[in-house]
Amino acid sequence: MDITQKIKEHIVNGELPRGEPLRQAELSALYGVSRIPIRDALLSLRAEGWLAPHGKAGVMIPALNWKEAEDLYLMRAELECLLFEMAFDNIQEVNVKEARGFLVDLDHENLTLVGRGELNWQFHNAVFFKVVGTLYLNFKLHFLFLFQTAYLGSV
Question: What is the pTM (predicted TM-score) of this model?
Answer without folding.
Answer: 0.70
